[in-house]
Amino acid sequence: RLVSDWSSDVCSSDLYLAQGDQERALRAYLQAVKINPHDRNANLQVAQICIHTKRGSEALLHLDQLSKDEQGTPAIRLLRAQALALAGRSAAAESLLSDTLTQSGDDPRVAFSAGMIFAGWKRYASAEEAFTRALQSAPTDFDVLNNLGLAALGARDFARAADSFQVALRQRPDDVDCLYDLARVYDGQGRPDLAVVPLERAERLAPQRPEILLLLATLTEKLGFYGDAATAYDRYLKLRPHDDLAQRERGFALARTSRTDAALADLQAYVQGKPRDARGLYELGVVETIHDRTKSLAHFNAALAIDPNFWAARYARAVLNYQAGRYGEALENLTLVLKHQPDDVGALDTLGETYLQLLRPREAVEALGHAAELAPEDTQILMHYSRALMRDNRPDEAQAVLRKFQQLAPEANRARPYSGLFTFLDLPPVQQRAQYLANLEARLRVHPEDATLKASIAQEELAEGKRNESLEMFHQVLAEVSDAN
Known about the structure:
Elements: H1 2-18, H2 22-35, H3 40-52, H4 56-63, H5 68-71, H6 74-86, H7 90-103, H8 108-120, H9 124-137, H10 142-154, H11 158-171, H12 176-188, H13 192-205, H14 210-222, H15 226-239, H16 244-255, H17 260-273, H18 278-288, H19 293-306, H20 311-323, H21 327-340, H22 345-357, H23 361-374, H24 379-391, H25 395-407, H26 419-426, H27 429-446, H28 451-463, H29 467-480
């Protein structure tokens, strides 16, 4: 009778487990263990279910019921390591897992499993080591390569991560996750220009993946392609309509494509719902500079009341104060910015101009000289620097700087953090659109096959009244794409 009851309980629990009903399976296995405390299968299944449901101490009790030989096998040691970690014994868990990996020799299965466990614990360097060992025995295994790349990415070993994903993609060039993760690697390396290549391919293969669209929006924004960023945010928000942060960033991207009404709508809606978000107030303040600088200054003040160390907002407030002739207030804000960001080129330039207005040319020369060292081909800084040298009665030096200014082509001028946006927003709408169109045309020279980019250029040309050029570009697009819409 005892054997019959035990056999019935084991069969029932196996059936429940096959059906995915873990709780009923657990109760049935526990009943079997109650009848036979040393039953290998029942104890092992209970331990696995407990680990899955994060009950580490219970899992350890059932693993202890196995024989000494069974407890010494790699599979059981891997389970015990996970149970120890769940029971709060992290040091013992990591030590056991490392020992198991060492004792396993060249067994790629143990190395792979250990790598997955280390990665689950966010011990990415250890996971990377384990996957590297697995790769030695299985150098072309896609899963090993992919997980090695993920572990290296987590450990910020970007070079190793890139190598792993690139080899994996040679086997599966259309693997969307692998393409996306390679883009994350390049972004981590500070190379958004490289990151957009695999990411655009991933987006074409999986246009409904929101995380791909969000990263694409972020990368194109970093590259200064704000129209593309706004489009990517648009598509992302259709999939995630309640993401307030994405709405905020879409608004800021729209502002830099001269679509200020749409930008204001996004940012005003965001700030209304999140009135204590300093960045939202700052971005709204930037856009308000076009229409109402009094409101803009109020938004910058509000942002700084929330976060006094928000240096972009403090710099923006300094620019508005300078433009309004409040040079003392501008000087106070710029001094604080440069105390924490001494190589901020835009702040140095504005500081030099402020000193000139305060009739302090020697200090202006010092600030603008430092700016010119940091940005030696920035024509605006060179022009300001030359003027400061003249005011400081140093005509020979001023002439030398002026000659350098004259030698530089207009396109040598560099966009600068923070100040570049103010310069753009200060332009008349016609010039803003022309600058945006020039940006699109520069990108087309890099990606001449990009039909979407050509369509964007055609739209901008039409808005500028260049009807013939626009029509010619639209004809090119129609000839190159299968989707006439």
